[in-house]
Amino acid sequence: MGQLGIGIIGTGRIARSHLRSLAQGAEGKVVAVYDVMPERATQAAAEFGVPNAARTLEDLLERRDVEAVIVSTPPTSHLAPTITALEAGKHVLCEKPFALDPGEAARMVETAERNQRFLAVCSARDRVGIGPRTAHELASSGALGKVYHVRSSTYRLRGRPGIDMFQDAPWFIDKTKAGGGALIDIGVYRIDVMLWLLGYPRVTSVLCSTFQGIGKPAPEPLVQTVEDHAVVMFTCENGASGVLEIAWASNVTGVNTTIVLGTEAGLRFDPLTRITVGPNRLPTEERLIDRPDADNRDYGDVTTQFVRAVLAGRQPETPARQALEVARVIDAAYQSAATGQAVSLA
Fold this sequence. Notes:
Helix 4 (79-87) links the parallel strand 3 and strand 4. Helix 4 packs parallel to helix 5 (102-115) and helix 8 packs across helix 10. The strands form 2 sheets. The chain has a 9-stranded mixed beta sheet with strand order 13-12-11-10-6-9-8-7-14. It has a 5-stranded parallel beta sheet with strand order 2-1-3-4-5, sandwiched between helices. By secondary structure, it is an alpha/beta fold. It has 2 domains: 4-125, Rossmann fold; 127-295 and 321-344, 2-Layer Sandwich (Dihydrodipicolinate Reductase, domain 2), CATH 3.30.360.10. It is built from 10 helices and 14 strands. The protein is 33% helix and 23% strand.
């Protein structure tokens, strides 16, 4: 199948996750890295054996051995490098959140389609486990009947980036830099999975509530301006609905799960279990896999999937048009939280 030459744009914490993943396989080879902080690019190149630390973005994109790039810059800086790379003829894997403004996300999608390049977004990270993939196969095959509702609940006890973890990245708690808190940071993964299980229908309305104030405040001089907790309800044009509960910080354990409701059967995650009701109106529960739902060892992570898909000439996960729908939902959710009213996207 060959090997894909890759350039990394931005060499901070998340870039190292991609670099570690690529180092474990032979399908993709990182041939150059670039960062607006040259010393950080040089350090990453040395650490991971990358032969070139580009001085400018243009230098990286002019390389003929760079066929695809991974944009690992902070959320406010995804637009320019993504569009520039696509215009240069490169395929792109963009970190999440795709964009803080759906208009910017739409511009990136249009640029990819106009240049006939693949554009994927890392909001697909929660798709790659054996549990979600099995659930998607069942939902899309009709084995559950008509799938009409999905609910996802994910609560951390204390996991606020910049405070409880990743203390070297305080921008996570600054709304002007991150766009929001738990919802846009980790909720983006769950919204992608929820819409994926529903067949990615267009969302028509969004209602959201957020809360901030769990745990000790950020140490001075830091100030947290994003939410710890969010609840989102959305409805779709095909009549399906979803409810998301997401939290960076909480005082609860043992309640994280995802459920999928179909007219013929339902699914409960962790472990993935199918529930049916027989003629006697009694439930039957069947555990479907004997591994943790998040186990992706037979499939690979989002980085691996991007490389394999580009080499095979097929659209990687998550397609940018699907990531655009996620961006629309999150933007509407923050609008709803600010106004206390549902937001129509019809």
